Structure prediction request, 161 residues.
Amino acid sequence: MPDEALAANPIATALFTDFERFPGPERNYARWILLDADARALFVDWEIQARAAVETLRLESGRDPGDRATVALVAHLREESPEFGRWWSEHRVYQRTHGSKRLRHPVVGELTVEYETLVPPGDPDTVLFLYTTAAGSPSREAMDLLASWTASERRAGRPRR
Prediction:
């Protein structure tokens, strides 16, 4: 299924969400960003990010239009998200290769992360997203704080967000 979250390291989980807490079919980035209140609060420019997720889903769904899981996801998002139906009907596509995301994180405050996508040779269905921050920036300081917080949460055995 397009945008299915297969794995994340602890800092990515703390930065965005713990996709492992969702049942298998719900581990989907587009579903999360469109339907989860925490996602709406996290992204400073939520509409831009959510719209990009819809456009990426449309691009990916074009690769296998008969995929039942994707068809079911699209139907579900049409029912649950007014924005999704509007954006989906525009037929715009977008391939995420690089960019930035501005976040308002509940633990470390505002930060901007840059991302790059990597597609392993021979496996076009798997995409790895790498997130970075500029050295010496307030965003790097926020990520360092988040990494420290994440490590202490894991040592204390507390559940992830």
User: Anything to note?
Assistant: The first helix runs from residue 10 to 15.
